[in-house]
Amino acid sequence: MAGLSMLYNAAIASTFMKILLFPCYRSTDFEVHRNWLAITHSLPISQWYTSAISEWTLDYPPFFAYFEFVLSWIAKLLGFDAEMLNPYNLNYASPSVVIFQRSSVIVSELVLLWALREYVYSYPEINRGNAVLTAIDTFLSPGFLIIDHIHFQYNGFLFGLLIWSLILAKHNRLLLSAAVFTTLICFKHIFLYVAPAYFIYLLRVYCLSESGFRPQIFNTIKLGLTVSSIFLLAFGPWIYMGQIPQLFTRLFPFSRGLCHAYWAPNFWALYSFFDRVAYAFLPRLGYSFPEVPFTNAPTRGLVGDTMFSVLPNISPSFTFYLCLALQGCVLLKLFLRPTWRVFVGATTLCAWISFLFGWHVHEKAILIVIIPFSILSLIDRRYLEAFRPLAVAGYISLLPLLFTSQEAPIKYLFTGAWVAVLLHFDKNAPVPVKRVFLLNRVNLAYVAGFVPLFIYNSFLHNFIFGGRFEFLPLMLLSTYSAWGIFCAFISLSWLYFTDLK
Hints:
By secondary structure, the chain is mainly alpha-helical. Residues 427-433 have low confidence and may be disordered. It contains 21 helices and no strands. It has helices spanning 2-20, 28-42, 62-77, 95-108, 110-121, 128-139, 142-152, 155-170, 174-187, 195-205, 217-241, 244-251, 267-281, 316-336, 340-357, 367-377, 381-396, 408-423, 437-448, 450-465, 472-498. Its EC number is 2.4.1.-. The chain crosses the membrane at residues 152-169, 176-201, 221-240, 261-282, 318-335, 342-359, 365-380, 387-403, 409-425, 437-459, 471-497.
């Protein structure tokens, strides 16, 4: 209980800090969720996924729509500003609305706290030291602070469901684990990234015998009925109304380009960077390339189709088959060695592959890689050394989401303190971890490289170029972060196929 009290104290202290952040910058996501409250409260269910009153149309699965519907009635019953529930009242953010929506994020985060408590209890009491530190590290994640409590989203409780599902699998409560994960997909479909790992693990461990691969018919029926019942509960009304094609159009907008406006730090950021460098320097060697319209250039900072000048253009189908092929290699090992630790590793790698090579990936999606990997990161020094560049680069890549000067001290100080603790973790770890000298030094050098990068982006760029090349600082940050995240992916992949048991 002493260890858990540390987690609870950290949660209480962070809650007071989050309340102080109520007046901070709010992104358009704040209005998105405020608008979803209004849509689900004031319009009939038949119009939830067809309404275009606002440009911020409902594009999360039905369980999240139900969640917003419940929140809207709580707001009404508690006497909050009724104007927030008017779908025609666009860009509305009275003090009452801000307090309600910010508070709803904090309260919903109790699901994450519960899941982390279960994670700690999943270890024997004598070995809970690292688990407690991992739980605190996760709850105080800069990603949750930046994205949920300032920028504004509801990732905390969603990742609480993911962690809880993984812990249920550790306890061999596989049917309940599948139910929780299916529920999670029906809240936010980005978690389809890791669905292949769940499918293979449940197939191998729950639907087939331990030896001989003999089908377990009764288990298969139970699993099928559980998953299909949850999907039917979520999507049933739209199946009845014949609106599934419209709903899926909202959930999967493939008309968007390969890269987001601010490049997510993935493989395509590196690809785009090398295309820009080649386009700038190869003509000096006598090569010529067709001019790409600015509206389609990868550095325009807009959402839409991306065209490359030198390297081949990428299609959505190519990214899909590439992810499928790479995930297939990961899933093959999971099928042949279906242990819980391999399952968590496969979950992490499936998310990582989708993040690195997927179509139109948002920078915020890095959380789906960092959070499950944190469960493995303290088991062995080698996992920790792969986790460090991922977590540091991933969280630092989120800092441009907060671009106003008032939030600069918060994002830099909190993220810097979290990174400092992560870098010094093993020195005070309750359980000794293996030491890998060279990898440790390389990772430390990589992390230190963010310092001159921030100095250039914050001061030197404008001094050198004035108002020109305004996208260059973001491009450098995204590319440098992508390099660390990609190398960390190679490290975990090597460990997964050689050491992970």
